[in-house]
């Protein structure tokens, strides 16, 4: 569970794992390779009487992926919706997309850690240092992307 988002990032319930995730897989199997948006998937689950947010949907998508529940196909997702695919190029594109998002998040994490260190140093020294809008002023470049 993420501490700043406790109400929406709690662990999946048994209902979500045993009932809703299989429902999602069934819909994706029925319509793939046509893309289905998160909004459409949530609407489908709501039509069955389950109030599911897009955040919880993404958590179920992650669960489906890590449990390999759509094998031999892979659950692919992007800004234009979700679908199942066994196409190696499509899977490679999904891997590249996810890796890019991970790298971007790691850059943000590194920057926040550096900013925290600056806060600690400023508190200890009693000096406030302004860095303006220059992200490289934090002392090092992101290890994942050049700034």
Show the helix and strand layout.
Blueprint: H1 14-31, H2 38-47, H3 54-66, E1 74-78, E2 81-85, H4 88-125
Antiparallel strand pairs: 1-2
Helix pairs in contact: 1-3
What's this model, at a glance?
By secondary structure, the chain is mainly alpha-helical. It has four helices and two strands, in the order H-H-H-E-E-H.
Distance between the termini: 31 Å
Task: Please indicate the percent range of residues in DSSP E strands (runs of 2 or more).
Answer: 5-15%
Strand order of the largest sheet: 1-2
Relevant CATH superfamily of the largest domain: Winged helix-like DNA-binding domain superfamily/Winged helix DNA-binding domain
Number of helices: 4
Number of discrete domains: 2
Mean pLDDT: 86
Structural class: mainly alpha
Q: Summarize the biggest pleated sheet.
A: 2 strands, antiparallel
User: Which residues sit in consecutive blocks of at least 5 with pLDDT less than 50?
Assistant: none
- As for the CATH topology of the largest domain, it is Arc Repressor Mutant, subunit A
CATH architecture of the largest domain: Orthogonal Bundle
Along the chain, the helix and strand elements come as: HHHEEH
CATH class of the largest domain: Mainly Alpha
Using the alpha-carbon principal axes, give the shape.
extended
What Rg is obtained from the alpha carbons, in whole angstroms?
20 Å
The portion of residues assigned to helices is: 40-55%
Number-wise, the strands total 2
């Amino acid at each position: 569970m993420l501490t700043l988002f406790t109400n929406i990032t709690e662990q999946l319930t048994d209902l979500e794992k045993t009932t809703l995730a299989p429902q999602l897989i069934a819909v994706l199997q029925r319509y793939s390779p046509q893309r289905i948006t998160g909004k459409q998937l949530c609407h489908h689950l709501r039509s069955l009487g389950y109030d599911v947010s897009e955040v919880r949907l993404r958590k179920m998508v992650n669960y489906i992926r890590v449990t390999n529940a759509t094998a031999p196909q892979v659950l692919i997702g992007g800004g234009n919706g979700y679908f199942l695919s066994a196409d190696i190029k499509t899977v490679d594109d999904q891997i590249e997309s996810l890796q890019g998002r991970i790298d971007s998040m790691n850059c943000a994490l590194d920057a926040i850690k550096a900013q925290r260190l600056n806060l600690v140093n400023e508190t200890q020294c009693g000096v406030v240092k302004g860095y303006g809008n220059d992200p490289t002023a934090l002392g090092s470049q992101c290890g994942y992307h050049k700034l």
